[in-house]
């Protein structure tokens, strides 16, 4: 007797009973992830420096009628004291641990080469790299408590296509920080595999978010940016939700140390063809 498709999908992709923490989950990609996890049945906690924004985002997501529920509270992973406070607040809310940690909180800084300031390194690297690592390290006991060999606890880091491709666009510290996230993901994926914890990363290209609002705030801007993407558009909320549900569900239980490109093909873009122009010129000359 075959298993109905609906039952098979439920077994593979349901997150019912799972508890997730999403940092920076009130806006942009973080909110897309929070909505996706809630739609799959998870209890989702979103935290950022702006507690009121998190609480409002949680209420708005809950009004959509998802199978899971969202809770919002304040938490800052940009410094050591903030990480410690966030971990303590999480332990009070989730005394039995968590299944999923989504390290989404991040910041960017843009300036032309020659004018890029020294302070742009401290602020970006502290949050995007040191904060991500420190929070993951501090929450290992909570993750170990919930992970099993067949259904590991999951850590999903937000990297970027800029962390793998030679694309700066004036965001030098951001691109370098995301390259560090890619490498940390692989290191932690290796070191935590025998502790029933997988560690993977998403490497997004352009999505509409607060960070990219200067070019994606309206449809015209989104169309212009999307025209430069091989698949012809910027990312949608469903793209982000589908990827994170895969990595966090039974479907992705055997994946660790991976960096999943979510960039519409930017990750495989190269320069122009090396020989086409010369070939065409020679053919014209000999015709």
Number of strands: 7
Number of folding domains?
A: 1
What is the averaged pLDDT score?
Answer: 94
Low-confidence stretches: none
Count of helix runs: 11
Structural class: alpha/beta
- Written as H for each helix and E for each strand, in order along the chain, the element string is HEHEHEHEHHEHEHHHEH
Features:
Rossmann fold, alpha/beta, 7 strands, 11 helices, 14% strand, single chain, globular, 287 residues
Describe the structure.
- The chain has a seven-stranded parallel sheet, with helices on both faces.
- The protein has helices at 5-13, 28-39, 51-62, 80-93, 119-138, 140-146, 172-192, 213-216, 219-227, 237-248, 276-286; strands at residues 19-23, 43-48, 69-74, 100-103, 153-158, 197-204, 259-262.
- The longest helix is centred in the middle third of the chain and has 21 residues, at 172-192.
- The chain has a single domain, classed as 3-Layer(aba) Sandwich (Rossmann fold).
- The model has no long low-confidence stretch (mean pLDDT 94).
- α3 (51-62) links the parallel β2 and β3 (69-74).
- It is α/β, with parallel strands linked by helices.
């Amino acid at each position: 007797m075959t298993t109905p498709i609906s039952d098979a999908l439920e077994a593979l992709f349901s997150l019912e009973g799972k508890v997730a923490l999403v940092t920076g989950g009130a806006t942009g990609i973080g909110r897309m992830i929070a909505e996706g996890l809630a739609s799959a049945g998870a209890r989702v906690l979103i935290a950022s420096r702006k507690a009121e924004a998190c609480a409002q985002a949680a209420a708005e997501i809950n009004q959509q009628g998802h199978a899971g529920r969202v809770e919002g509270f304040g938490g800052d992973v940009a410094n050591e004291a903030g990480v410690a406070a966030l971990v303590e607040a999480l332990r009070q809310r989730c005394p039995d641990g968590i299944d999923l940690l989504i390290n989404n909180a991040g910041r960017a800084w843009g300036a032309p080469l020659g004018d890029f300031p020294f302070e742009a390194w401290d602020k970006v690297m502290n949050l995007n790299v040191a904060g991500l690592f420190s929070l993951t390290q501090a929450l290992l006991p909570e993750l170990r408590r919930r992970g099993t060999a067949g259904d590991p606890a999951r850590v999903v880091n937000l990297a970027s296509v800029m962390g793998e491709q030679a694309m700066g666009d004036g965001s030098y510290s951001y691109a370098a920080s995301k390259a560090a996230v890619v490498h940390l993901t692989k290191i932690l994926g290796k070191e935590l595999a025998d502790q029933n914890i997988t560690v993977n990363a998403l490497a997004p290209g352009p999505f509409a978010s607060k960070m990219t609002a200067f070019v994606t705030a309206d449809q015209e801007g989104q169309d212009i940016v999307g025209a430069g993407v091989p698949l012809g558009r910027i990312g949608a909320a469903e793209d982000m939700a589908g990827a994170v549900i895969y990595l966090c569900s039974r479907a992705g239980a055997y994946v660790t140390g991976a960096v999943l490109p979510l960039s519409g093909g930017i990750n495989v873009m190269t320069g122009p063809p090396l020989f086409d122009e010369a070939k065409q010129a020679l053919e014209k000359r000999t015709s």
